[in-house]
Amino acid sequence: MRRGWAAGLVLGLAVAGMLPAAGQELENGGSGQAILPGHGASTNLPVPRFVSLKSEIGNVRRGPSLEHRVDWVFHHRDLPLKITAEFEHWRRVEDNEGQGGWIYYTMLSGIRTVLVTEARAELHRGPEARTQVVAIADEGVIGKLGACTRDWCEISAGGQDGWLMKSQIWGVDPDEVRN
After folding, report:
1. What's the start-to-end Cα distance of the chain, in Å?
2. How confident is the model at residue 34 (pLDDT cuts 50, 70, 90)?
3. Which residues contact 37 (CB under 8 A, 6 or more apart)?
4. Which CATH architecture has domain 26-111?
5. 11-20, 57-66, 107-116, 153-162: which range is least confident on average?
């Protein structure tokens, strides 16, 4: 009985405009700090942003709770994912194909990785096409992200280090520059 009363109170407050409507987040994430525009209400980190899958398997749910069914399962440790929304301890993520949903935050890592999206991508010694090719990466290879210039990113994968054009990878914003 008490549970129904509380649900009715919350619904009544939402109708009266005192709580955010479905799909909206509190302005300060409940922390008392102002949330910057384009930042998540739970972490105040930029949204969207890239992260990676921390474990071998990650259940992705239809909504931000254990009550929601699992719609998708990611099966590769270090898979780069894009966070597109936050709700409390849940993050809405998508992969390079736009597949995804809600995953619990402990399943994610801030370690940046990228996915090679072109077959036989040439890793260069430096961030220029004229530099020596040091390795060839197949489509689907996951590498740790290093520095990025306007057009190139340094990655480490399979014991090899080199530079790939941003157009050959997923997991970094086109205008992102990293040192």
Report:
1. 57
2. confident
3. none
4. Roll (2.30)
5. 11-20
CA atoms within 13 A on the CB side of 90: 17
Find the helix or strand (DSSP H, E) in which 2 lies: helix 2-15
Residue 167 Ramachandran class (φ > 0 left, ψ -120 to 50 alpha, else beta): alpha
* CATH superfamily of the domain spanning 114-170: SH3 Domains (2.30.30.40)
Domain ranges in the chain are: 26-111, 114-170
CA–CA separation, 120 vs 144, rounded Å? 18
Q: How far is CA 9 from CA 5, 14, 64, 65, 85, in A?
A: 6, 9, 21, 21, 26
Cα–Cα nearest to 58, from 78, 84, 38 = 78
Global pTM? Answer: 0.81
Calpha distance 169→152 (Å, rounded)? 10
116, 141 Cβ separation under 8 angstroms: yes
Same fold, 26-111 and 114-170: yes
pLDDT in tens, 79-121: 999 999 999 999 999 999 999 999 999 999 999 999 999 999 9
Query: How far is it, in rounded angstroms, from Cα 99 to Cα 48?
Result: 15
Q: Which amino acid is at 34?
A: A
